Amino acid sequence: MRQRAVRDQQRLDSGAVSSPKDLESLQREITSLAKRQGDLEDIVLEVMERRESAQERVAELTERASAVQTKADDATARRDAAEAEIDREAASVGKERELVAGSVPADLLKLYEKLREQQGGVGAARLYQRKCEGCHIELNITEVNEVRAAAPDTVLRCENCRRILVRTSESGL
Ligand SMILES: [Zn+2]
Which helix (H) or strand (E) holds 126? Predict the structure, then answer.
């Protein structure tokens, strides 16, 4: 289009076109071409501006996506590490429990398991300074006397929560 306008202008300048009608039509065409060129330039400018703003937005979103991905990767790594740690601990505690359970008589183990299920995961409690550490209720004097009189291998139960009571040197007896 620009070339055509230049060619028209050259024809006009060369004086080759002499008829006033032709001159006028040539002049009109040059004007119209100039206007269309101006319009097209405006459109090109607008498109370029829009492209630039879209590119900025793409860059911004890419950066944000990358930051979020970094955070997600970090959280995943921490979760995996925690899971591995929990697995190690569970395996170690499981082994320990197996060893202890192996040395406990079967009927006592059964009772313990039943109580554990009923008492929120704690089937046995330490008797500490005359208190059951399962329900934190202090034994009354009658109960204390009963515990004192019981043989060392007697399975004692808390009168309040029914958990198995474990005697130690700190039981306060
Ligand atoms: Zn108790």
Answer: strand 124-128
CA 120 to ligand 1 center in whole angstroms: 13
Residue 46 is part of which domain span? 2-72
> How many angstroms is it from 114 CA to the middle of ligand 1?
15
Q: Are 6 and 62 members of one domain?
A: yes
**The last residue of a domain, from among 72, 97, 119:** 72
Average pLDDT, the chain: 94
Shared domain for 11 and 63, answered yes or no, is yes
Q: What is the pLDDT of residue 92?
A: 97
For residue 111, how far is its CA from the centre of ligand 1 (angstroms)?
15
> Could you tell me if residue 84 is inside a domain?
no
Give distance in angstroms: CA of 160 to centre of ligand 1.
5
User: Confidence class of residue 81 from pLDDT cuts 50, 70 and 90?
Assistant: very high
Tell me how far apart the alpha carbons of residues 57 and 51 are, in angstroms, rounded to a whole number: 10
Number of domains in the chain: 2
Concatenate the DSSP letters of all residues of 52-118 into one string.
Answer: HHHHHHHHHHHHHHHHHHHHHHHHHHHHHHHHHHHHHHHHHHHHHHHHHHHTS-HHHHHHHHHHHHH
Q: From ligand 1's centre to the CA of 19, what distance in Å?
A: 121
For residue range 6-17, what is the model confidence (pLDDT) as tens digits?
888 888 888 887
Is residue 31 a part of any domain in this protein? Answer: yes
